[in-house]
Design brief:
The chain is of the alpha/beta class. It has 14 helices and 14 strands. Strand 7 and strand 8 form a beta hairpin.
Length: about 375
């Protein structure tokens, strides 16, 4: 197989959205490979993506590579077989649909303790891929789509590079830019953590908690909930926006063009920020008067209050309600863990998850 411009690791709805929107929007020739285990799904994604490129008259070409991403040395084999310049890691052992599911003790724990309960699961494949890129010595840009607000910090603490993620802050920045309350062509900049999304899944009259910070043409919005009361997200993941949000960036990376927008986890930072892509490097593009230290501290505060914080030295610690709930199931987690123990911690937590999924929501 020839080397590809963009490798998409994963075959779920998020990966499909990325591939299909590349097919419909690219103006420059781009070669995309989609990798995963389900060969029937791979054949469909290849067929549909190439059909969309033909339908819209776009110079995109799609092929596939069958591989079990959880197999030993799978990440190294994948890089050797596909030779990507950009790797979009969209595979995970924990579906994001958990945020909309109910009925067992695990989904209740996630609903009450927060999505960082799944961070270790989300990090497993992404960390393996990042390590394989480091071992390869190749200049491969990693875009991690698996819970990037938190997982990208785990990746960098392990000593690997990650450019950014997709979705989350970019969901909000784009829905705000498309709001009837924003003048056409206005510059919108948003500082947002993934935890800010929950309010917009509820009706306008029920929204509360810390809002994202939003600037329109350089002026910060005083009452974000009131200004954007017309915005409504779905209870389940909004893949139609989140999966699409990184496509302009990916195409700019592939073509060597500049780009401005929003991403979660740029260079391993917590939460999401406005950024600028220049000469292949992502840098923060913050509103005037806001320093990087202030922006990072604002985002970091969410996981410090409730979630998972990873120190630069690689020590991970659960906080708040999530810590209480997880340590009730696994007391040894109270002391936290080193990210270098990710594989063993993941196996232990998988046992907890599997057990809780067999229990009714009120039994834990």
């Amino acid at each position: 197989m020839a080397a590809c411009d963009i490798l998409i690791s994963g075959t779920g709805g998020f990966a499909a959205r990325i591939a299909f929107d590349i097919a419909a929007t690219t103006e420059q020739p781009v070669h995309v490979t989609i990798a995963g285990r389900n060969q029937e799904r791979l054949r469909w994604l290849r067929t549909a993506a190439n059909a969309r490129a033909a339908l819209f008259g776009k110079p995109a070409r799609f092929d596939t590579h069958a591989i079990d991403l959880l197999a030993p040395d799978a990440a190294d084999a994948l890089l050797a077989a596909t030779g990507p310049r950009i790797l979009v890691q969209a595979a995970s052992i924990q579906t994001s649909q958990v945020i909309a599911q109910r009925g067992n003790a695990w989904t209740r724990l996630v609903a009450e303790g927060g999505l960082s309960a799944t961070a270790v699961f989300q990090a497993l494949i992404s960390a393996r891929v990042a390590a394989a890129i480091t071992r390869s010595g190749e200049a491969i840009t990693l875009v991690n789509c698996s819970f990037p607000d938190v997982v990208n910090g785990i990746i960098t603490a392990l000593g690997h590079d990650v450019a950014c993620g997709m979705g989350n802050v970019a969901i909000l920045s784009n829905v705000f830019a498309g709001s009837a309350s924003v003048p056409a062509g206005a510059e919108v900049k948003v500082l947002a953590h993934y935890q800010n999304l929950a309010a917009w899944r509820r009706p306008p009259t029920e929204r509360g908690g810390p809002p994202p910070r939003v600037w329109i043409d350089g002026r910060e919005v005083d009452d974000v909930f009131a200004r954007f009361a017309d915005i409504q997200l779905t209870p389940e993941p909004v893949i139609e926006i989140s999966g699409a949000s990184g496509v302009p960036m990916l195409l700019a990376m592939a073509a060597g063009r500049e780009w401005r927008g929003h991403v979660p986890g740029p260079n391993g930072l917590p939460g999401g920020y406005p950024v600028r892509l220049s000469e292949g490097t992502l840098k923060l593009d913050l509103p005037a008067g806001l320093t990087q230290e202030e922006a990072v501290a604002w985002n970091a505060a969410f996981e410090q209050e409730n979630g998972l914080v990873v120190s630069p030295a690689g020590e991970a610690r659960f906080n708040g309600v999530l810590r209480e709930q997880l340590t009730a199931q696994l007391p040894e987690l109270a002391a936290g863990f080193s990210v270098r123990e990710l594989e063993s911690v993941c196996q232990t937590l998988l046992g907890v998850r599997d057990r809780l999924m067999t229990m009714a929501a009120g039994d834990c």
